[in-house]
């Protein structure tokens, strides 16, 4: 059975969660974190995607994104694939870095948006 396509509309606000495979860390040190943030900045700038909040935890990432003309799946593919290639090369490993697809929660209500920002 094919998986359902994601809801994605230009200007929609998404709470995105990306988890490390098998609960493994996706950031081993500050260099990994800085590389992810630099890649995030480059992808957001290139795709004109707004980022209202982000949190980098050892084994997962939370992002609050509002894509423009470029769809969210394209933004996330550029971000996560590029980071995984760099991470694997740097740590001399291969295979998946992130578990499954990223999770995306559509934020339609202002209280949810404000609560997400308050916690970040």
Key phrases:
Alpha-Beta Plaits, globular, single chain, four-stranded antiparallel sheet, 39% helix, 4 strands, 120 residues, alpha+beta
Description of the structure:
With 120 residues, this protein is an alpha+beta fold. The chain is 39% helix and 22% strand. The chain has helices spanning 30-47, 72-90, 110-119, and strands at 13-19, 50-57, 60-66, 103-107. The chain has a four-stranded antiparallel β-sheet with strand order 2-3-1-4.
What CATH architecture do you see? 2-Layer Sandwich
Q: Could you name the CATH topology?
A: Alpha-Beta Plaits
Element-by-element helix/strand order:
EHEEHEH
Specify the helix fraction band. Answer: 25-40%
Approximately how much beta-strand content do the residues carry?
15-25%
> Which structural class is indicated by helix and strand composition?
alpha+beta
Task: Assign the CATH class.
Answer: Alpha Beta
What name goes with the CATH superfamily?
A: Transposase IS200-like
The largest β sheet comes out as: 4 strands, antiparallel
Q: Main sheet: which strands, in order across?
A: 2-3-1-4
Q: What Rg, in angstroms, do the CA atoms define?
A: 14 Å
Return the average pLDDT rounded to an integer.
Answer: 89
The N- and C-terminal alpha carbons lie at a distance of 36 Å
Q: Could you give the count of β-strands?
A: 4
SS field, number of helical segments? 3
How many domains is the backbone divided into? 1
Shape: globular
Low-confidence stretches: none
């Amino acid at each position: 059975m094919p998986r359902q396509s994601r809801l994605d509309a230009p200007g929609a606000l998404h709470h995105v969660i990306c988890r490390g495979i098998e609960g493994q860390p996706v950031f081993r040190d500050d260099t990994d974190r800085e590389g992810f943030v630099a890649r995030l900045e480059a992808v957001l700038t290139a795709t004109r995607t707004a980022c209202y909040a982000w949190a980098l935890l050892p084994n997962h990432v939370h992002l609050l994104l509002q894509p423009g003309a470029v769809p969210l799946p394209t933004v996330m593919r550029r971000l996560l694939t590029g980071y995984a290639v760099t991470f694997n090369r740097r740590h001399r490993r291969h295979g998946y870095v992130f578990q499954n697809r990223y999770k995306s929660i559509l934020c339609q209500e202002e209280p949810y948006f404000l609560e997400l920002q308050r916690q970040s």
